[in-house]
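dumping this here before i forget
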Amino acid sequence: MRLLLIDPYVRAGGNLNTSLGWLSAAVHKAGHEVFVLDLNNRRISNYKEVLPEFISKYNPDMIGITAMCTTYVTMQRIVEQLADYYNGYIAVGGAQIAFEKEDVLKDGQRIDFAVVGDGEETIVQLLDCLEKNGELSQIEGLIYRDNGQIKNNPPRKWWETDLNKLPFPDFRLFGLKKVPPTYSYRVSTSRGCPFQCIFCNPITMRSKWRGRDFHLAIEELKFARADFGVQCFNICEPVFNLTRERVIQFCELLLKEKINMPWTTSSGLRAKPIDDEMIRTMKESGFYDLKIGVETLSPDVFPNVNKGETLDDIGNAIKIAKRNGLRIEGSFIIGLPGSTYKTVMDSFRRAQQLGFDVMGWSLLIPYPGTRAYDWVQEHGTTYYDYKQAHQYAGEIGDDGQLRVAFETPEFPLKDRIRAYQKILWKLKQPGVGSRNYLIFMKAGKIIYGLARHDPWNIWGNLKYIAHGSASEFRHRRRHIERPFFEFNDLQKIV
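structure:
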């Protein structure tokens, strides 16, 4: 069968969809024809103009569309449009479908199938089944329509999938020709997470951790460098440093195979296994920029997160990183159970004292199935669900409104926004109320925000304004710059 996979456009752009990379490679290996239409990195926002002609020429038997929380609405809009001119099968998958389940078929009457969880085996079985007129009820992890009724098959035990038997992502199936030198290629050496953080995706929480043969990851990196010009990479997975021994083994293999690429871990490292030997070996193999998922440094709130480590573990990891000359980034969450305006600002002050070079602060979104969700249902008032709420200031739309998911009596909405604004302005990362305005209005809001939230940091404010002016100039010239990725022309694909 012929499958067309679509990655919906998002304004931020930036990364190749590795999930579709794995999925398309599995479909291709199984003998089916597949192409991934990357609307995101091809920067095709006008999909209504592009899709009809391309689909008419490619003529797929099935169209599959991936959806995250930020692209769920776009996915449904694409499905609605497809109904006007496409008569084949439509399937959806991706992280968001794990939450939506059968509701996604209710929201989109034209959707035939939903794939829940890791989809490599499910989608291949589905294509084989349709080609041979088999029995859909035998495919685990599949939701489908049967004579007008929605059927939900038993979940697939995707944590039993042997990662070493899956072909690694082949972005030639995206029509990719080359990536720019600054692009950090995302590679995985494991899936799943054995820990039980209260805010985490329940699908990840229930997934058993399983590793991938490091030699396969090395071969993938060699292939990506030879075929696409990749010059640096990023370990992108929930738990890379499950043990220090595992990390050292990987780094030694990088050195032995002479990969010679700078690399980092955008998902971050757990603090507990970090020691000097591990960090030194990582640096020797090309590692830079240590990121740690801290969440909070408040002693009153941290135990509620259930991270399986302590504040002392985090403090020790930062000392080790500094001792070895690494740049340190920490990620934090506002709104964890038990938090207040005071505990959030206390956490921020402690983070400043520890000397993080970069901090990323986000708002808690309680996802169904997490303990954070249950806690909010009992103790809070919900204003926006996980599809509508903002996690980061950069998600604010044209209306300029920050959509905070919930409040609690001890941490009301106005205090949450106040804490977020204050922290962002002090970090010179404004996003609340500063975007989507004409340049003079934006400048006025920036000056007001700095004066209100960080008035005594005069030198830092001046540096930020100068940097912001240069960034604004670059932004306005961006339309004349070359595309971020180089793809084959769509006309040549068909």
